[in-house]
Every structure is written in structure tokens, then in C-alpha cells.
Automatic annotation (TrEMBL):
It comes from Alkaliphilus hydrothermalis. Residues 107-136 are annotated as: Disordered. The chain crosses the membrane at residues 20-39. This is Stage III sporulation protein AG. Residues 118-136 have a biased composition (Polar residues). InterPro entries: Spore_III_AG. Residues 107-117 have a biased composition (Basic and acidic residues). The keyword Transmembrane helix applies.
Amino acid sequence: MEKWNEELKKLLSKKYVANLLVILAVAVMALIVSGDFFAKDSSTNRLERNPMGDTLVMQQVETKSEEELVENRLKKILEEMRGAGEVEVMVTFEMGAEIVPAINTVESKDTTEEKDSNGGTRTVNSENITTSTVITNDNAGNRPLVLKEIKPQVKGVIVVAEGADDPQVKARLYEAVKTVLQIPGHQVQVYPRN
């Protein structure tokens, strides 16, 4: 029994306990660092499997611009016209789309009448207007409530087509672009392709 007590005292000596605590602290730090490393690695893999992710920025990067959408649809329909052949289309806009969010306005007015000791009166009017954007919560997170979206105005269109050497095909392409985009003729140019 005495031998056990001596061995126990040796094991619990300050030097042994200090060494044990240092080893334990290093092991805990190693686990924390490796856990962060593997957690970052798994979140990257999750985003690769789900390309939409959880952020609005990623969704905007993946969507096509208004110009690209209009150009692609216009190109597709113009290429279907008899004699047009292969077509390239370029559309420019004055500005990007404008989004009008819903605004919550709180207005408060206060009128105070003060009288001083000499019999004079003073009226103090104060007005406070507070506005904030109305936020909705959906699957993608919190977003502003949009009242309307104003599409950008077309500034100009260039069409380059194989069949534009033929005046009749050129005229049909010209009229089709004016009609579909509802723009005046001076904003549309049709050229033959090389």
C-alpha cells in the first residue's frame, strides 16, 4: 500500500501534471484547427453540389442580363425569317433595370405651445418622418418587397445577317426589329454579313 502511495505521489507531481496539461492543450488545439479545416472543406463541397448556394450574389452571377436575353430571343426569331441566314444581334440599353421597392413611411407631427413668465407665448412645431424598406422573408432569405420593376429602354440595335444583301430581306429584318422592340427606325441598323 505504501508503494502505491509513493507511485501516486510521483504521478501527481507538479512536473508530470504540467506536462500532461500541455499535451492535452496541444491535442485540443489540433482538434479545433483540423475541425475548422474540414468544416471549410465540406462547405465548399456543398456549394459545388448546390450551385445556387444560399446567397443572392451567386444567383445574380448565374442569370443572364436583360441585354443577353433580348439579343438571344431576337437572334433566334430573325434567323427563322426566309432568306436571313445566320444572324448576329447587338442590343444596347440606356440603363439597367430599375427596381422600385415598397416603402413604409411613418409620419408624426407635434405642436407645443409654451408660455413664459412675462406673458409671452411661443408655438413650437416639430415633424418627424421615418421611412424604411418593406422586407419579405422567403426561401432565399430576406429580400425587399418589389412594387414594380422598370425594364431598361433600348438605345440601339445592330443586326448583321447573311441575307441582308437582298433589299427585301434587309427591309423585313429592319421592320421586325422595330416591331418587336417598339423603337423608332433611327435606332436600328441592318448590315450584310461577310
